[in-house]
Design goal:
Shape: globular
Oligomer: single chain
CATH architecture of the largest domain: Alpha-Beta Complex
Number of domains: 2
CATH topology of the largest domain: Quinone Oxidoreductase, Chain A, domain 1
CATH superfamily of the largest domain: Medium-chain alcohol dehydrogenases, catalytic domain
Length: 387
């Protein structure tokens, strides 16, 4: 395939988002070219505009987008796991379910073996805020029949941020707890019956952290969220949901009883603002571990209180991209199992809200994310619907 496509560009640092034309990239030997049906929005997308995260961008105009689901259009010569299928006249049921008006579109390829969920990256040809992009075949998974494109697009970054923080074994990575993964011997028994505390359970990352904790047999699984998300989080595996608006002191006072008196060896802070980091650090037991998804800002006075005899609290960050060389092996292990996890309901996607106007609807969606006006939901754009 050759020619041009529509893409959403960030024109410059602190610049504007503008829909324009981009060349359709050609896959290398180990890549696939994907027609992006659904792309999810993430906080990193608005943070890239003008913040310390902007240093990730190498040149402008820049295409963002780290979550995608779509249809394999071309496969590199070394790719054997994903192939382009036959063009059908009837649209797949998962695709029908996500049409705005309930009608189908015969302009899309519908062989189910071609449906792919994948993570984009911070390079234009790999990003998902466009109609076609490249992805290494080893870090993609086929979408099972019970998951729509929109739902699938809600998965990659959030799930990777949960999985890599716990299970990445790469010796070069300093952003992992190196727990035994659930696909390895002992991975589902290492923490069986031990409590886990997930701060920010209704966030996309928080929802996947809850499910990964359940997969590892942590119990009970305690989380914080707005009360209206209680039913959702219970369905994912949370056993106790605390109102996130409670004072830190109140939450800390409730944790021992909810954990049945057991020490909290694992705390995952899916929000990682100053107040939640302080909560996470105080909640973890000596010798326990805390995961932060943003740079550490734990007050020094809290760390001093934790000094003394015995092990302190281990604090780890995470870089939730399976494209990074240090994360690649763990990412491949995750994607090799993702289709099965989705088929069996072990991993459930986020609830989604589809934005209007394809790529042109993304800037308003990012403004909502920046203003914290999205809760328990993943915003989705459909690049093929761009005016």
């Amino acid at each position: 395939m050759s020619g041009t496509q529509k893409a959403l560009y960030l024109t410059a640092r602190a610049g504007q988002w503008v829909v324009g034309e981009a060349p359709i990239p050609r896959p290398g030997p180990k890549d696939v070219l994907v027609k992006v049906v659904s792309a999810a929005l993430n906080p990193i997308d608005w943070k890239l505009v003008d913040s310390p995260f902007s240093s990730i961008i190498q040149s402008y105009p820049f295409i963002s987008g780290t979550d995608g689901a779509g249809i394999v259009e071309e496969a590199g010569e070394d790719v054997t796991t994903l192939v382009k299928g036959d063009k059908m006249t009837e649209v797949h049921e998962a695709q029908k379910a996500q049409q705005h008006d309930g009608t189908s579109s015969d302009s899309l390829w519908t062989h189910c073996d071609m449906y792919s969920v994948f993570q984009g990256y911070f390079a234009n040809e790999l990003a998902t805020f466009q109609q076609y992009c490249l992805v290494p075949a080893a870090i993609t998974a086929k979408i099972p029949d019970n998951i729509s494109f929109d739902e699938a697009a809600s998965i990659p970054l959030g799930l990777a941020t949960a999985v890599l923080a716990l299970y990445n074994q790469d010796p070069k990575s300093d952003k992992t707890l190196r727990f035994t993964p659930p696909w390895a011997e002992g991975g589902t028994s290492q923490f069986a019956g031990k409590p886990a505390f997930i701060i920010g359970g209704s966030s996309s990352v928080g929802q996947y952290a809850i499910q990964i904790a359940k997969l590892a047999n942590f119990s009970p699984i305690i989380t914080t969220a707005s009360p209206h998300n209680t039913t959702l989080l219970a369905s994912l595996g949370a056993t106790h949901i605390l109102d996130r608006a409670l004072p830190t002191s109140t939450i800390l006072s409730k944790l021992p009883a909810l954990a049945s008196g057991k020490p909290l060896e694992f705390v995952y802070d899916a929000i990682s603002l100053a107040d939640t980091q302080a909560l996470a650090y105080q909640a973890a037991c000596r010798g326990g571990a805390v995961v932060l998804v943003l740079p550490e800002v734990i007050p020094e006075e809290l760390k001093k209180e934790n000094e003394g005899d015995g092990d302190g609290v281990r604090v780890s960050g995470v870089f939730g991209s399976v494209h990074h060389p240090d994360n690649r092996r763990c990412g491949e292990e995750m994607y090799a199992r993702l289709t099965g996890w989705l088929e069996k309901g072990i991993i459930k996607p986020n609830r989604v809200e589809v934005l209007p106007n394809g790529l042109a609807g993304i800037p308003d969606g990012l403004a909502r994310l920046e203003a914290f006006k999205v809760s328990g939901m993943k915003l989705i754009a459909r690049p093929q619907e761009t005016p």
